[in-house]
Amino acid sequence: MSIRHGLLALLERGQMYGYQLRAAFEESTGSTWPLNIGQVYTTLSRLERDGLVRPLPESEAGQRPYEITDAGRADLALWFATPISRTDRPRDELAIKLALALTTPGVDVRAVVQTQRTATMRALQEFTRLKYASDRPEDLPWRLVLDAMVFQAEAEIRWLDHCETSLVRHRPAGSGGRAGPGRPAEVEADRDGEEARR
């Protein structure tokens, strides 16, 4: 998530100070990605340095609002018009974890997959519950965020199923035909037994 462009989008609505920006950001995303106030002010400082926002005089309460500049509007418009590349997104920690589990001796990769599947199923149930918790029109931005998280969780479960199937079929080099890693040989034997019983 680009906090930088998130704040620019909020300032396009009108001038705001730090705490207002944090509250508006969390309201727009259903608090899915909570921001701490330090992140807000650090980002505002960088936006000001880059000429994309400008600070306004402090209010009587000592709050300094910011407003977006013309350069900020142009940067925001470019962001909305440009698709987000997959290379711009954070690394897929789960894929890295499974790849390392597969190549680390002694790791039960199937257990890693099962643990992740259980956690992802729980998350999917929670996202679905939250999605149907409110149907107010003003909650549409939040529900769209939840939709994205539901689809991601469903895709992750499908990918974990694929990983488990691939593990069953995997024959590491030099294993002499023994399936691995983790305990796929046992899984293979169980599966063979099941087929024999049919």
TrEMBL record:
Residues 185-198 have a biased composition (Basic and acidic residues). Residues 91-166 form the Transcription regulator PadR C-terminal domain. Signal peptide: none annotated. Residues 170-198 are annotated as: Disordered. Residues 7-77 form the Transcription regulator PadR N-terminal domain. InterPro entries: Tscrpt_reg_PadR_C (IPR018309), Tscrpt_reg_PadR_N (IPR005149), WH-like_DNA-bd_sf (IPR036388), WH_DNA-bd_sf (IPR036390). Pfam families: PadR, Vir_act_alpha_C. It comes from the Bacteria. This is PadR family transcriptional regulator.
